[in-house]
Known about the structure:
The protein is α/β, with parallel strands linked by helices. It folds into 2 domains: 28-118 and 246-315, 3-Layer(aba) Sandwich (D-Maltodextrin-Binding Protein, domain 2); 121-220, D-Maltodextrin-Binding Protein, domain 2, CATH 3.40.190.10. The chain contains 12 helices and 10 strands. It is globular, with a radius of gyration of 22 Å.
Amino acid sequence: MKKLFVLLAAALLLAPVSSMAAWAPSGDVNVIVAYKAGSGTDTGARILASEAEKNIGRTLVINNLPGADGKIGWTQLVNAKPDGQTIGFINLPTFTTLAIQPDSTFSVADVVPIANHLSETGVVAVKADSPIKSLKDLVAACKEKPTMRASTNGVEASNHTAAQLLAKSAGFDYKAIPYGGTADQLLALRQGEVDFTCAKVADVAPLIKGDKPELRVLGVFSEERLPEMPDVPTLKEEGFYDKWYGAARGLVAPRGTPQEIIDFYVEAFRKTMQDPKNIEAHKKAGLNLDFKDNKQYADLIAEQEKFCRDTVSKLYSK
């Protein structure tokens, strides 16, 4: 028996530390959101964070760092210490659009994928009291008046790209007016500063409901009509851009973050996004949950980087 105890003790001493205790955050987790409070990304991030805390075991502190179309927040994210105490959200394709620019302060290689959170279809919208009633009305108005104004969530950001896809496919010019994020660009439309805008389903959902809706959706960037907007035609139906376009929002960590930390977060967010309570919370907020693990998310990021190089870059060429 004494010999057995000696052997067990020796085995424990020789066992690697990682096998004795799995990694877990040592304190509150800093979650960087590169857009202001109240934006679509921020809303989804806060819902997910509040539900994920029980699986992570620590408080997730949303840190809004808006500005420069996301560059400020994402630059700080990629430069954070890769110790698992700081993670953040990126938006596709905006992140990849900015990452491939020659003067970018970050690249796709500077982040490690954790999980995709949301996938949101793009929409074209006007004020509810606008004389423009359809996509064809909008296209005709823009062809007649090339100075028609559209608000965007930043120069070459996701909603600017949506407007470009519509304009290029329909053959019209317009004036893009960049704002600090989606919340601000929609406020500009609601206040009559611009004539139309492109955003995502979740962004406009609260503004098209009720007895006095503030906005009207003219079309969706989808190959088929959306279940939540069955009366709204697709751009494809109207003879314009004929593919799906929207945004994916997901979680990443700084480059160099150890695999055991990534694995911890992948499983924590998997459990959270598959929890019926969390699913219902997202549904009530009009958010389209679309969990992808780190490997699937890596594939999506690579796909979006290619889309930005091959397609988006040409949308802005003079």
